[in-house]
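Figure caption, in words: inputs first, then the predicted bound structure.
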Amino acid sequence: MELDSLYQEVILDHYKHPLHKGLSDEKSVQVHHVNPSCGDEITLNLIFEGDVVQDVTWDGVGCSISQASASIMSDLVHGKSVEQAFLALDAFSELMSSKGSIKGDDAILEDGVALAGVSKFPARVKCALLGWMAFKDAALQAREKEQK
Ligand code: ZN
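Bound structure (zinc ion present):
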């Protein structure tokens, strides 16, 4: 897999020094997602205050793409409203399904644009999406809980 070398560095840096890794004791909701095709796993804890993602922590194992992407995602959604986080999530999903045709908006996706090249490798897209799908699941579960 060949990625732009600058982007490769961003990914490796997140992989080696993941942000928000290490699960919090407290949580509003916890989810565990796996990507069986690669063996990636992630557990995600979210704490909401109203509609804001007050804290996000995670733990996981797997390939560099999945773990770096979880780190990037966690830093991106931290402190944001669920609505803002979902906008980033939509933008990232669009980027991952673009097969390399778009670069992504770094104003929305921040370091997430570093994963743009992954969209050219369908087998790895699931790795990159794992953490983001876990976030979506957790946020929806939290919203459901609140409505009960
Ligand atoms: Zn993977």
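DSSP finds five helices and three strands in the chain.
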